[in-house]
Amino acid sequence: MPPVRPGRLRTTPAAGPSAPPLPRRTLPAAVVVPAGAVVVVVVTAVAVLAPLVVAGAIALAGLVALFWLHPRAGLLATVVAAVLTTQLGVLGAAGGAVDEGMIVVGAAVVTVRRLVRDGSVVWFPGLAWFGAFGLAGVLSSLQHDVPTTLWLQGGLLLLKAVLVGHTAAQLHWDDVAIARIVRAGVVLGVVLVVTGVLNVVLPGPWTALVAQSGPEMHGPVAAVVGPFRQPAAYGRIAVILAAATLTYQLVVRSSLRGWTLALALSGLSLLTFRVKSFVGLVVATTGVGLRTGHRSVVRLALVALPAVLLVAGPTAWRYVVADLELYYGGGYSARSLLTAGGFALAARDFPLGAGLGRYGSATAAEHYSPEYVRLGFEHVWGVGRADGWGAYLLDTQWPALLGETGWLGTLCYAVGVVCAFVILLRRVTPDETPLTRWLRISGICCLALVLLDSVGAAALSSPPSYVLLYLAPGIIASMRFDARSRGPS
Questions:
Q1: CA dist., res. 222 & res. 440, Å (int)
Q2: Cis, peptide link before residue 215, omega less than 30° from 0
Q3: Under 8 Å CB-to-CB from 369, ≥6 apart: which residues?
Q4: Nearest-CA neighbor of 360 among 327, 330, 331, 321?
Q5: Does the model's pTM come out above 0.85?
Q6: What is the phi-psi region of residue 343: left when phi exceeds 0, alpha when psi lies from -120 to 50, beta otherwise?
Q7: CB-based contacts of 236: which residues, under 8 Å, 6+ apart?
Q8: Inter-axis angle of helices 127-143 and 148-169, to 10 degrees?
Q9: What is the distance between the alpha carbons of residues 255 and 245, in angstroms, rounded to a whole number?
Q10: Are 182 and 248 in contact, with CB atoms under 8 Å apart?
Q11: CA 246 to CA 259: how far, in whole Å?
């Protein structure tokens, strides 16, 4: 008998009567063989005759599994797809469909997952108002006989940012999960800095590679596009990340690498030569400094701000006034025409507008809305119908909401934005952690910057910024719900 190791006790099962095995039930071969053959034939035929259907089914099953088993990874994949896919043109026209498919599938799966596991759903702030906005658009579309596919596409385009926020609200968040968001943001920031520096060093080859066009020159300096195709997209994301990095330095932990990253992102955002990037950077840095209340930062701002305004103020003011005149002036630029047209449709079809997908949106541009023809845009460069004449059809946001959903829908959307903004102003708990406070302040900056950009761009519905718009309100809503569920500690 072999020796037994110390600390281990060998046991043997007790002898006794055992239950008889259950009978095995199998289908007869006369049924199994024909059924298996039919399945093989059907699957093979579908794969050969309709490979896109099979590929779509496999992709759908993969997305469902991803969002059910690893919902945060699915949310991160959605953000990455929205920020990079359509801008890089990796999938061409299909990029937007992939982006929107991930958003819809993720929102549906994560909501069902929350109901099954927790028996509850977190109410995204302002969801009722956003729902009323969507309802106004649907009613207007039905009233004006807009094709179903068009108003569905147009409605999803305007509400997909809200769906991303709703998805984030259904997950549980803590400091560990927020720290992962910080790391992902740092990676994206480093990518923007590296590509921006390459763009500055090699403007011609880099712009030809990424944007398939020549660089936009401002004197001897080319406007930075980074990994995107437009300088405006780079400036928008760079300013958002610069504000988030600065907030982290002042609220959580300060480091030389963090300050370097914030400074590099700020400088490269200015090299896009976009007025909104400059104004957004000034507003964000000033707001973060005042919000965090660091005396050294406030003193530095009080000392530096007059000097900056003295040197750059007159030039910046001329650019700001020129942009406002371009967007909302009484001239005949594309943006001013779109603004005037939005007000005209809102007045003509009071209070619901002309219908989803009919004005100022990517859907209206792709199918060239009949409203543009009625407004006389058809033969105007920038908003015309001829090939290459509609380059500025998407350079608007609030006039697009007015034109498609009227005053009623636009008011509902604006109230929903206010609700999402307000939840970020209040602490989750009286003793919230620095990372939670960082998320709230960064969310305020992101929302304010995107709203600022929306005065002359479809920033609420177009990549790369829309996917970040309601992430922080959704996460804070989830944390507040969990804090209430736990009760006072």
A1: 35
A2: no
A3: 354, 357, 358, 359
A4: 327
A5: no
A6: alpha
A7: 276, 277, 280, 449, 450, 453, 459, 464, 465
A8: 180
A9: 11
A10: yes
A11: 7
Q: Helices in 202-294 by DSSP H: which ranges?
A: 203-211, 231-251, 256-270, 275-292
Using alpha carbons only, what angle is made at residue 343 by residues 276 and 346, rounded to the nearest 5 degrees?
130
Using alpha carbons, select from 344, 366, 354 the residue that is nearest to residue 142.
354
Residue whose C-alpha is closest to residue 237's, from 445, 482, 438, 35: 445
Alpha carbons 261 and 275: distance in angstroms, whole number: 22
As a whole number of angstroms, the distance between CA 251 and CA 443 comes to 14
For 104-159, write each residue's pLDDT tens digit: 899 999 999 999 888 889 999 999 999 999 999 999 999 998 898 888 888 888 89
Cis (ω within 30 of 0) for the bond into 125? no
Residue 404 neighbours by CB under 8 Å, 6+ apart? 137, 140, 154, 158, 353, 354, 355, 356, 357, 358, 359, 360, 361, 364
Distances, alpha carbon 25 to alpha carbons 19, 22, 28, in Å: 18, 9, 10
Q: What is the pLDDT of residues 162-187, one digit of tens each?
A: 999 999 999 999 999 999 999 999 99
Structure-token pair, residue 237: 């994301």
* 177 phi, psi to nearest 5 deg: -65, -40
Which residue type occupies 401? L
For residue 248, count other CB atoms closer than 10 A to its CB: 23
Token duo for residue 438: 């960082």
> Could you write out the DSSP letters of every residue in 114-166?
HHHHHS-----TTHHHHHHHHHHHHHHHHHTT--HHHHHHHHHHHHHHHHHHH
